[in-house]
């Protein structure tokens, strides 16, 4: 099964094109691909349970693994214990693991 | 080493301008600690990341000396990453896009940085286990 890691670094409150990653992740998952969405930098801001976190929770429900960079969370004072449903914290090592394993990695 | 990997990372951001630079250096750091071979292709403003002329400064507003300010200097971080990679049996091959260097007068780079072209990026990607392009927006 093809595997994809999509890295979202943009803040949905600041950028109007972050839906690109969610849409692509959902479409890839729907066509039997293993997909992880990794949020980094200001991309982690929507993991706080709020109006914009619903997209991430729905994505997790659609079979996409949704992870948020632990370092980016700490930098922004976001408590790893209180993330939106379906989102988990993970270290940046996830990206190197994926690269080493030949996963298709796309930065946005 | 059976699990030794070669990873290519392309970056485009100038220093001190975007979190992408920090994330790129964090990724290179993890790879260096794993002993991977890391190819970096620096394009556009990123050719200034290893610019040798970077100088730490004091902070007069806060009354701090150069030492107290302990300013982050990308060229020093890159040199440290190169040493870290070698300590762990890996290597960082850092290629600065030559035309981007000329445009910015950035030829004075730290040791270990070489001049190249997008053709080098293609060759590095071809010879790598995987490639990540960290593009500007």
List the helices and strands and how they pair.
The complex is a heterodimer of chains A (about 110) and B (about 140).
Chain A: E1 3-8, H1 19-30, E2 34-39, H2 54-61, E3 65-69, H3 70-75, E4 87-90, H4 93-100, E5 104-107
Parallel strand pairs in A: 1-2, 1-5, 2-3, 3-4
Chain B: E1 6-11, H1 19-33, E2 37-42, H2 66-69, H3 74-87, E3 91-97, H4 98-104, E4 113-116, H5 118-126, E5 130-134
Helix pairs in contact in B: 1-3
CATH superfamily (homologous) name of chain A: DsrEFH-like
Which structural class do the helices and strands of chain A define?
alpha/beta
The SSE string of chain B, one letter per element, is: EHEHHEHEHE
**Strand residue percentage of chain A:** 15-25%
Low-pLDDT stretches of chain B: none
What's the quick description here?
With 108 residues, chain A is of the alpha/beta class.
Summary keywords:
heterodimer, A: alpha/beta, Hypothetical Protein Ychn, Chain: A, 4 helices, 23% strand, globular, B: 137 residues, alpha/beta, five-stranded parallel β-sheet, 5 helices
Write a structural description.
- The complex is a heterodimer of chains A (108) and B (137).
- Chain A has one domain (3-107): Hypothetical Protein Ychn, Chain: A, CATH 3.40.1260.
- By secondary structure, chain A is an alpha/beta fold.
- Chain A has helices at 19-30, 54-61, 70-75, 93-100; strands at residues 3-8, 34-39, 65-69, 87-90, 104-107.
- Chain A is built from four helices and five strands, in the order βαβαβαβαβ.
- The radius of gyration of chain A is 13 Å and the shape is globular.
- Chain B is an alpha/beta fold and 137 residues long.
- Chain B is 36% helix and 20% strand.
- Chain B has helices at 19-33, 66-69, 74-87, 98-104, 118-126; strands at residues 6-11, 37-42, 91-97, 113-116, 130-134.
- Chain B has a five-stranded parallel β-sheet with strand order 4-3-2-1-5, sandwiched between helices.
- In chain B, strand 1, helix 1 and strand 2 (37-42) form a beta-alpha-beta unit.
- Chain B is globular and about 50 Å long.
- The interface between A and B is medium-sized, with 18 and 19 residues.
């Amino acid at each position: 099964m093809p595997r994809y890691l999509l890295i979202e670094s943009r803040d949905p409150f600041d950028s109007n094109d972050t839906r690109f990653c969610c849409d692509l992740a959902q479409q890839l998952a729907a066509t039997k691909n293993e997909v992880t969405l990794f949020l980094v930098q200001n991309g982690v801001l929507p993991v706080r349970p709020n109006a914009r976190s619903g997209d991430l929770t729905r994505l997790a429900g659609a079979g996409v693994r949704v992870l948020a960079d632990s370092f980016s969370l700490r930098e922004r004072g976001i408590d790893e214990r209180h993330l939106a449903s379906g989102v988990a914290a993970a270290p940046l090592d996830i990206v190197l693991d994926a690269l080493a394993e030949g996963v298709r990695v796309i930065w946005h | 080493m059976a699990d030794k990997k070669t990873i290519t990372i392309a970056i485009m951001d100038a220093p001190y301008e975007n979190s992408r630079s920090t994330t790129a250096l964090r990724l290179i750091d993890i790879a260096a600690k794993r002993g991977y071979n890391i190819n970096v292709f620096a394009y556009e403003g990123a050719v200034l990341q290893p610019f040798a002329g970077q100088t730490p400064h004091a902070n007069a507003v806060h009354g701090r000396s150069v030492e107290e300010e302990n300013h982050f200097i990308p060229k020093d971080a890159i040199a440290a990453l190169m040493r870290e990679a070698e300590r762990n049996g890996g290597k960082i091959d850092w290629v600065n896009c030559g035309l981007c260097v000329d445009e910015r007068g950035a030829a004075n780079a730290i040791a270990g940085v070489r001049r190249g072209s997008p053709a080098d990026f293609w060759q590095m990607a071809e010879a790598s286990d995987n490639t990540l392009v960290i593009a500007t927006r």
